[in-house]
Amino acid sequence: MSYTYPIDEIHWSKEEIIDVVNFYSLVEQAYEQGVKRDDLLLAYTRFKQIVPSKSEEKTLCGQFEKESGYSCYRTVKQARSLSEGERLKM
Protein backbone atom coordinates (compact mmCIF):
# COMPACT_ATOMS: atom_id res chain seq x y z
CA MET A 1 0.00 0.00 0.00
CA SER A 2 1.66 3.20 -1.14
CA TYR A 3 -1.20 5.63 -0.62
CA THR A 4 -2.97 7.37 2.23
CA TYR A 5 -6.54 7.02 3.41
CA PRO A 6 -8.73 10.12 3.09
CA ILE A 7 -9.62 11.09 6.66
CA ASP A 8 -10.72 14.23 8.46
CA GLU A 9 -8.24 14.62 11.31
CA ILE A 10 -9.74 17.95 12.34
CA HIS A 11 -13.38 16.94 12.85
CA TRP A 12 -13.15 13.23 13.68
CA SER A 13 -12.16 11.71 17.00
CA LYS A 14 -9.39 9.14 17.25
CA GLU A 15 -12.04 6.39 17.51
CA GLU A 16 -13.86 7.69 14.41
CA ILE A 17 -10.61 7.76 12.42
CA ILE A 18 -9.92 4.15 13.44
CA ASP A 19 -13.43 3.11 12.38
CA VAL A 20 -13.16 4.85 8.98
CA VAL A 21 -9.72 3.30 8.38
CA ASN A 22 -11.21 -0.09 9.29
CA PHE A 23 -13.90 0.39 6.62
CA TYR A 24 -11.31 1.32 3.96
CA SER A 25 -9.22 -1.67 5.02
CA LEU A 26 -12.17 -4.04 4.60
CA VAL A 27 -12.83 -2.64 1.12
CA GLU A 28 -9.17 -3.38 0.28
CA GLN A 29 -9.47 -6.88 1.69
CA ALA A 30 -12.61 -7.50 -0.37
CA TYR A 31 -10.51 -6.96 -3.49
CA GLU A 32 -7.37 -8.71 -2.33
CA GLN A 33 -8.55 -11.81 -0.46
CA GLY A 34 -12.23 -11.53 0.35
CA VAL A 35 -14.14 -10.53 3.48
CA LYS A 36 -17.25 -11.56 5.34
CA ARG A 37 -20.23 -9.67 3.94
CA ASP A 38 -21.55 -8.95 7.43
CA ASP A 39 -18.22 -7.46 8.62
CA LEU A 40 -18.10 -5.11 5.64
CA LEU A 41 -21.71 -3.95 6.04
CA LEU A 42 -21.23 -3.40 9.78
CA ALA A 43 -18.14 -1.28 9.07
CA TYR A 44 -20.08 0.64 6.40
CA THR A 45 -22.90 1.33 8.88
CA ARG A 46 -20.33 2.80 11.28
CA PHE A 47 -18.74 4.77 8.42
CA LYS A 48 -22.18 6.28 7.64
CA GLN A 49 -22.60 7.31 11.29
CA ILE A 50 -19.35 9.25 11.01
CA VAL A 51 -19.98 10.49 7.45
CA PRO A 52 -23.77 10.92 7.16
CA SER A 53 -23.60 13.31 4.21
CA LYS A 54 -23.91 11.58 0.83
CA SER A 55 -21.77 14.26 -0.83
CA GLU A 56 -19.00 13.89 1.75
CA GLU A 57 -19.17 10.10 1.35
CA LYS A 58 -18.81 10.48 -2.43
CA THR A 59 -15.85 12.82 -1.97
CA LEU A 60 -14.03 10.58 0.51
CA CYS A 61 -14.74 7.35 -1.36
CA GLY A 62 -13.80 9.03 -4.64
CA GLN A 63 -10.45 10.05 -3.17
CA PHE A 64 -9.96 6.53 -1.81
CA GLU A 65 -10.74 4.98 -5.22
CA LYS A 66 -8.44 7.43 -7.02
CA GLU A 67 -5.58 6.55 -4.64
CA SER A 68 -6.15 2.80 -4.34
CA GLY A 69 -8.22 1.72 -7.34
CA TYR A 70 -10.76 0.13 -4.97
CA SER A 71 -14.40 1.27 -5.13
CA CYS A 72 -16.31 1.62 -1.84
CA TYR A 73 -19.55 2.03 -3.77
CA ARG A 74 -19.20 -1.13 -5.87
CA THR A 75 -17.99 -3.14 -2.87
CA VAL A 76 -20.92 -2.14 -0.65
CA LYS A 77 -23.37 -2.65 -3.52
CA GLN A 78 -22.02 -6.16 -4.13
CA ALA A 79 -22.11 -6.95 -0.39
CA ARG A 80 -25.76 -5.93 -0.20
CA SER A 81 -26.60 -8.37 -2.99
CA LEU A 82 -25.20 -11.31 -1.00
CA SER A 83 -26.94 -13.32 1.68
CA GLU A 84 -26.09 -13.06 5.36
CA GLY A 85 -22.96 -15.03 6.25
CA GLU A 86 -21.53 -15.12 2.70
CA ARG A 87 -18.03 -13.99 1.75
CA LEU A 88 -17.40 -11.16 -0.67
CA LYS A 89 -14.56 -11.26 -3.16
CA MET A 90 -14.35 -8.44 -5.70
TrEMBL record:
Domain of life of the organism encoding this protein: Bacteria
Mind telling me which Pfam families this protein's record contains? UPF0223
For this protein, the record's SUPFAM superfamilies field holds: BH2638-like (SSF158504)
| The protein, known as | Uncharacterized protein
Species annotation: Halobacillus litoralis
